[in-house]
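Why do we care about 3D structure at all? Because function follows from shape, and shape follows, mostly, from sequence. That is the central idea of this module. The next example makes it concrete: a single protein chain, its amino acid sequence, and then its structure expressed as tokens.
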Amino acid sequence: MKFRKVVGWLGIIAASKAACAAEIELYGTVDTFVAVNYNGSYTSVQFGSGGLKGSLYGIRGKEDLGGGTNIFFRLENGFISSDGTNTTVAEPDGWAFQREAVLGIRNEKWGTFSFGRLYSLNAANVVMFDPYGLTLGSVIGTYFVPNGVFGMTGFNGQATVDNLTRRNNAFQYTSPSLLGWSFSAQVSLGEQKKWDGEVSNTLGNSYAVQAMYRKGNFAFASTWTLQNMASTEGFIRHNTNNNQVIAAASYDFSFTKLYLAYLYKHGENSEYSYNPTLQLWTLSSATPLWGGKLLAGFAYLHNNTVRKANSWNLTTRYEYPLSRSTILYGGLGFVNNSAKAMYQITAGGGGSASPLATMGKNYWTAFSGLAVSF
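And the structure:
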């Protein structure tokens, strides 16, 4: 009897696999860190999440349709490992997969079409040429992630206004590689409301194009993005457009890999603008060392709109793999803020926010953490 039951279950499993040709994978990361921060006024100890990688869980899969064509999807959500809360708590209700919700079709000859909640080409360009991956200690992340508080306006701006990390209602095309070159285009529909409450066809929309080149140890990418911004925030009383250009390159010298990046955001020229014109220059490196990897970076931000709102920062981080899935890491970071700047070292958008800096004061941090992936 028991043998018949076992044979029966094996038959059901075999039939299930035969009926479902798609490859499905469950994956995730749990990342927790401890940091000591000095914000120019006081020292605090922080227990946070997402220092090396954002804590997340996800499902991804693909199905081969033949002829070099396959269908794929990714569903991914983030959480804060230090307290178990969802990273969507400050976002719209009902958001099950805040990080990504993507459905796409890929063909070897014709390229890839993707639809859903996608990473912006802006953010993808930065991550490719940031050895820190816009996580804790990233010299670019210091100026990319900020949420638009006066004195802390970044390239990502306000999360509810000009969030250029991920885009809702987006569709994207990426060409196959030809002689090392590939090209992408992305359009997202903001579906924001006008001041009279009517849903607009243009407010919040973004449009982006990207060119990328890879050959041997050299890589280069440039992205242009236009966003028609709007807001429901009370202190913002008008709409505005936002143009961003990114140009970045890397070269692997074997003993170390160097990264250069230039970011330009054209906003407004008002001294009190939440959307100023910014320029950022960065130099970073990733060097194999003692079985792990040493990262170092420097960035300088110039605010073309607000006087005395410039900043620069210098960081280092060491990552040591304890196993194929577990990484121990630690680092130091310093930010120099001008009189009207208040930037700080912080984890990426899917991580814990660090204590706010003090206007015009320097910021220090030291951190250590552990990341486990599955």
